[in-house]
Amino acid sequence: MTVTASYPELRSWDRLMIGGRWVDPAGAETIDSIAAGTGEVVARVPAASAADVDAAVAVARKAFDEGPWPRLAPAERAAALGRVRDEIAARLDEMIAAFSVEIGAPAAVSSAFHDNALKMWDDNVRLLGELAFEEEREVAGEGIVRIVSEPVGVVGTIIPWNGPVATASLKLAPALAAGCTVVLKPAPEGPVSMMLMAEALAAADLPEGVVSVLPAGREVGEHLVRHPDVDKVAFTGSTAAGRRIMSLCGERIARVTLELGGKSAGIIADDVPLDDVLPSLVFAGIGHTGQVCAALTRILVPRERQDEVVAAVASFLEGLEVGDPFAAGTVLGPLAAERQLERVEGYVAAGVAEGARLVTGGHRIEGPGWYFEPTLFADVDPSMRIAEEEIFGPVLVIIPFDGPDDAVRIANDSIYGLSGAVYARDPSLAESIARRIRTGQISINTWGMCVTQPSGGFKQSGLGREGGPEGIRAYLEPKLIAGL
Fold first, then answer.
1. Is residue 169 within 8 Å of 159, Cβ to Cβ?
2. What pLDDT, in 10s, does the model give residues 273-304?
3. Strands, E, within 24-140: which ranges?
4. How far is CA 357 from the centre of its chain?
5. Among residues 151, 194, 196, 159, which one has the least CA distance to residue 175?
6. Are 242 and 462 within 8 A, CB to CB?
7. Whole-angstrom distance between the N-terminal and C-terminal Cα of the chain?
8. Span 16-260+461-481: which CATH code?
9. 170 near 471, Cβ under 8 Å?
10. Sequence-distant (≥ 6) Cβ neighbours of residue 200 within 8 angstroms
11. Catalytic residue set
12. DSSP of 191-253
């Protein structure tokens, strides 16, 4: 494993950004920023409390009910979003470095995540120049009616640690574009990235109260979800947490968007050459050390090609450079936290116990930090835990199928439906399979996450869509004005 001499220094903070202003936190608790590659504390930020949530929601409520933000013309909000985008860009190098330190993403991965964040702000600026917020319709026998799309209100946004700036942008940009005010609660892991995001938002000079950033743990997040002045909750995270949030929102009929877990399938449909498949397919499964909800962690192969594919994938994995995210040539960095490493170890043990064949990997890499070998299982039955449950680590499973109908059955035999891909020499075969998979997004002969188009989950992978015009509409309520 390659190690660099030193990491860049990260800044600490002692104040929170509430409603665009830097204020002292209500409590004295702090959050340690820990380097995933060393396990060492590298910075410290305030931990928001329930009292801080109450303060942020209060100013967000006032800003929505009385302030200018929801009442600005779309072009004025677009100009403000453009300022946010520019302030993020001005801090991009520091954000990229912080993400690599805190979460362990190699430089190329970290850069890609943050480039996507800029694309999201750019796209919402563009969309504000194209979307119609009012529409007149002529109704037979009733004359003219007007449909007015109004912002839903105060939005409580909760995001995970595996791509905080990008995930925050995916929710903040459309919510602000719609005219909502937002209280953002990031995960306690990766807090420096989000304090830099708070700096960018504060520097963009939005009206007072429009946005707050409150890093905190689960209990504070639940307080935000329960708050009676929060009109909508937008959450990205585990399916288990999503169930809890949806139930709490249901108690008071709050709106909710959920982007949850996945166990997506990458299907090798026919005799497509493996050299054309493996780079895309393997990195779709273990890129960012497998810590991506849309990862293709189930590889489905024709039974007659199983041995060939197993050997090729194993060879590919064994040739990857695992190491320090700042070292040249590193492809996979560490897992984000010690508990994540222990989680992956537990799933590997379960796979062996259930009878799957461990082909390569399967062990932590000794030394500082939370490193784990890229891992491949074969002889996997679809009912095994490693084939059914989201591991969130660099673990791939290969499952054989007997014909296209069987591949579709296996791919759909999941509580999840977030992503997927089909690889085939015959593009018509690939598309016919893709259309039958119950998933929110699926690619043919490639894999990627298009952040400017609607994405989201079927089944227990979530509710609602993010990205594109659909992403803004998720933060709007249609109002009918009749009798015109």
1. no
2. 999 999 999 999 999 999 999 999 999 999 99
3. 30-34, 41-46, 134-139
4. 31
5. 151
6. yes
7. 71
8. 3.40.605.10
9. yes
10. 84, 87, 88, 90, 91
11. 259, 293
12. HHHHHHHHHHHHHTTPPTTSEEE----HHHHHHHHH-TT--EEEEES-HHHHHHHHHHHHHHT
Q: How far is CA 133 from CA 145, 391, 426, 480, in A?
A: 14, 42, 43, 12
Q: Is residue 2 scored above 70 in pLDDT?
A: no
* 461: DSSP letter: G
> Do 16-260+461-481 and 264-450 come out as alike in CATH topology?
no
Pairing status of strand 364-365 against strand 420-423? unpaired
Asked whether residue 368 carries a pLDDT value surpassing 70, the answer given is: yes
Residue 375 to residue 390: CA distance in whole angstroms: 14
Cα 416 → chain centroid? 15
For 316-346, how does the pLDDT look when each residue is reduced to its tens digit (9 = 90+)?
A: 999 999 999 999 899 999 999 999 999 999 9
Domain at 264-450, CATH from 3.50.70.10, 3.40.309.10, 3.40.50.970, 3.40.350.10: 3.40.309.10
Place of tokens 């499964």: 285
Pairing of strands 143-151, 476-481: antiparallel
Q: How would residue 367 be classed by pLDDT, with cut points 50, 70 and 90? A: confident
| pTM to 2 decimal places | 0.96
Burial call 88-107: b when 16+ CB within 10 Å, e when fewer? beebbebbbbbbbbbbbbbb
Vertex 74 angle, CA 69 and 77, to 5°: 50
Closest CA to 440 of 459, 426, 425: 459
Q: Where are the domains of the chain?
A: 16-260+461-481, 264-450
Percentage of the chain beyond pLDDT 90 is 96
Helix, strand, coil percentages in the chain from 3-state DSSP, rounded to 5:
40, 20, 35
